[in-house]
Amino acid sequence: MVPWYLVMMKYNVIAPLGDSIDSIYVGIREFPTEKIFLIHQGKDSPRADELRKELDKFRIGLQLVEAKGQLLEGMFRAFAQIRLATGEEKLLVNVSSGDKMSACAALAASFVNGLTAFHVEGDKVSMFPVLKFSYYRLLPERKLGIIKFLKSQPDCCSSLEDLSRRTEMSLPLISYHINGNAKAEGLISQGLVQVHVGVRGRTQVMLTELGRLIAEGYIENPSEMVKSV
Question: Would you state the pLDDT for residue 85?
Answer without folding.
Answer: 85
